Amino acid sequence: MEPLEKLVGLYLRLNGYFLSKYIIHSPKSGTVRGEVDWLAFKGAHHSQSHVGDSGCDFLSLKEKHNDIIICEVKSSASSDFNKSLKSTENIKDILSWIGVVSDRDIDSLAEKVSKLVSRDVDKIEAQLGIVYQNYVFRPLLAIGVDSDRDFEKRWRLNTGIIFNFIKKRLATENHIPSCSRNYGASQWGDDYKDLIDWFKKNNAETINIENFNKKFKG
């Protein structure tokens, strides 16, 4: 797994999301139609009050819904969603796999969700997503830069937001009586152990995308 994908995955995990990757299969031998870096699901009644916060404000919803995020991870601020995620048929394939949209509604919903991957979509519209029953679907582009000049007009995640949230959540000096932060990184398993260890051993001034790339990309 690419280091930046892993970082975004850790951020989503710490915000209470279940995660999966997804391959959009093709009938043509040796090819796929596309892939999703992260499919993330968080239930409407999710709670993490014992850890001292309710999650990152960037991902917040105005109303309680089961939140489903279709996340694309890119290293550059100039990047956009992959062409495969701009296809209504591919979005329909993803929605079919998730399995919460009825057959009669899936075509119209796929069309609505696919429109949210446009570079020109309104920031608030993108953050609110497409509501279906008690679910909300939100395509999210995550980029590997700490400061995003388009932040005020586009709903997309940057590593500045990610680092600030993870530092706050894992910092041992932020003592929470109901949730000790003083534990080994091995509890996170092989997928995230190296990342957790890096966050716990570095201070706020040294946690940035430049040092992240030096450590994990070589």
Q: Would you give an account of this structure?
A:
By secondary structure, the protein is α/β, with parallel strands linked by helices. It has one domain (3-212). Helix content is 33%, strand content 20%. The protein contains seven helices and six strands, in the order H-E-E-E-H-H-H-E-E-E-H-H-H. It has helices spanning 3-14, 88-98, 106-115, 123-128, 159-170, 189-201, 209-216; strands at 18-25, 32-42, 66-74, 130-132, 135-143, 156-158. Strands 1, 2, 3, 4, 5 and 6 form a six-stranded mixed sheet that branches. Strand 4 and strand 5 (135-143) form a beta hairpin. Helix 2 (88-98) packs across helix 3. The longest helix has 13 residues, at 189-201. The protein is globular and about 50 Å long. The two termini are 15 Å apart. The mean pLDDT is 91.
